[in-house]
Amino acid sequence: MTKKDIKGVGYEFVEGGHAHYLDGERLTGITTILGVIAKPALISWAANMAVDYIDEKLPVKRDNNVLSVDADDFKRILEEARKAHTRKKEEAGQKGTDVHAEVELLIKEAIDASRGIVGAYSGTSEQVGHFINWAKDNKVKFLESEAKIYSKSLFLGGICDFVCEIDKEIWIGDIKTGSGIYAEAFYQTAGYQMLFEEMGLYSNIKGHLILNLKKTGEFKEKRSISNDDNKQAFLSALSLYRITAKTNGTL
Predict the structure, then answer these.
(1) Is the pTM for the entire model greater than 0.85?
(2) Beta-bridge partner residues of 223
(3) What is the residue extent of each domain of the chain?
């Protein structure tokens, strides 16, 4: 298909603030909408991070089989433990950003230089290596990388990791570097699909695919062709987000 201007009239993306604007008004981001979905597993994860930090850092003295801890050390370590999960998240986020940036560059090079087909990889990242192997094994042709898209009717903006063609079928893709692939990832790509469709792009999308490039070296791929269900799930999250914002006076 002939690629249209993906930015559209009146749309602007400001890199510094990672913000989408339409005619001067800031749009809500796709990933911001999905923040309304509860993630109970994160609560236990954060608690575990705090406990692990205390267990590692707390200096315990043994005197006549009695354990003792300096009061000032105890207070300091407890305060540091409160933020253990934040530090872990930021560290993982930076590593994920690095992987995303390298994959983005490889896809853009493929689109610009070899009709969307990725070439040989000379880097050292195991995560990126898995991505290259997946692309070659599935004979993937990339059509978009980091596509900046928006919807006037939904008042949303987003950046789609990639759009690709596999066996002559179009897929919207997203890369995750966290612990796994969850349902929300497909709601996210469904949101991107609606934005593409409103812009008159890729009306024949087969489905959504998620690549999980873990820092442990593990690799997973999941696909979904339940496009209507995923769209409905995203729209439900959007409704909850808008109503909550209105109730709280932030909309």
Answers:
(1) no
(2) 209
(3) 29-42+98-247
> Which residues are within 8 A (CB) of 193 and not within 5 positions of it... i.e. 6 or more apart?
172, 202, 205, 208, 227, 231
Domain 29-42+98-247 has CATH 3.40.1350.10: yes
Quick: pLDDT tens for 1-35.
333 444 545 899 988 888 999 988 999 999 999 99
pLDDT in tens, 45-80: 567 777 776 777 666 665 655 566 667 777 777 777
Distance CA 159, CA 18 (A): 10
Structure tokens of 164?
Answer: 């690709």
**Tokens read off for 225:** 């062709």
What token pair was written down for 207?
């489905």
- β-pair partners for 80: none
Q: What angle do CA 209, 210, 211 make, to 5 degrees?
A: 125
Number of C-beta neighbours around residue 122 at 10 A? 5
Q: Which of 140, 207, 136 is nearest to 167 (CA)?
A: 140
